[in-house]
Specification:
Largest sheet: 5 strands, antiparallel
Helix content: 25-40%
Structural class: alpha+beta
Strand order of the largest sheet: 4-3-5-2-6
Number of strands: 7
Number of helices: 6
Shape: globular
Strand content: 15-25%
């Protein structure tokens, strides 16, 4: 039986129709693309407040001093040349909002942890004292984990840290605050503030990371000695 075939003219007309449909679709997509609303701005990335590893301390201090906002408020990391007590730290903040506090127990030639605690920022003196107790609990947990893993020195260091924090040591190393240029400059002029490093104005709090300059870092930012004896804890839980 003979197979029927479409006439050549009909086939040509079908191809013409398909081409017109394709052209129309491209035109519609181009118009939609031109009139669509602009895409939302991407979420800002994390910004580090504090020095970079290997950075010269003098260069970092100059960079931090130049970071104060020209206008409006910004988050800023207040870094101390020596740790202070919770009450003194609250006074240093000078009435600006405090959002985080960084604790570090100073032990000679022993690497100790940076413990960052978030605070509501309504009653700095009480909140910083409460944060110190939470930092002690954090180091208790670190001791338990290290002891379970058979890590003797880390367990001893964590136990000494927890005991010092519970005893109310002068262990506040840095504060994350929010203020304008005048307020931040006033804080920077107070002793023992070593540096105030401001974030980009408008940066949201969750996008701010902190890693303060350590008091013993004087030339280049890098590891500090960890060859000293660990003192026995002055108290227990």
């Amino acid at each position: 039986m003979r197979r029927r075939t479409l006439p050549a003219r009909l086939i040509a007309l079908c191809w013409v129709a398909l081409c017109w449909v394709a052209v129309c679709l491209v035109a519609v997509c181009w118009v939609a693309g031109c009139t669509a609303a602009p895409a939302e701005r991407p979420v800002p990335g994390t910004e580090l407040l504090g020095p970079e590893q290997g950075e010269r301390v003098a260069d970092y201090l100059a960079r931090a001093a130049a970071s104060l906002p020209a206008g409006g408020e910004a988050w800023a990391l207040v870094q101390l040349g020596e740790p202070v007590g919770a009450g003194t730290a609250a006074e240093l903040a000078g009435g600006v909002r405090v959002s985080r506090v960084v604790f570090r127990v100073p032990l000679p030639r022993v690497q100790t942890a940076l413990v960052t605690i978030a605070v509501p920022g309504q009653r700095p003196a009480q909140e910083l004292a409460d944060a110190q107790r939470r930092a002690a609990a954090d180091r208790d947990g670190a001791h338990d984990r290290a002891a379970t893993a058979g890590q003797r020195r880390p367990a001893e260091v964590a136990a000494a840290e927890a005991a010092a924090l519970r005893a109310g040591c002068a262990c506040v190393l840095a504060l994350l605050v929010r203020g304008d240029r005048a307020a931040l400059a006033a804080i920077a002029a107070r002793e023992p503030v070593r540096a105030v490093h401001a974030a980009t104005p408008g940066l949201p709090l969750p996008s701010v990371a902190v890693s303060p300059l350590l008091p013993e870092q004087r030339d280049v930012v890098g590891p500090v000695p960890d060859d000293g004896p660990v003192p026995s804890p002055a108290g227990s839980r």
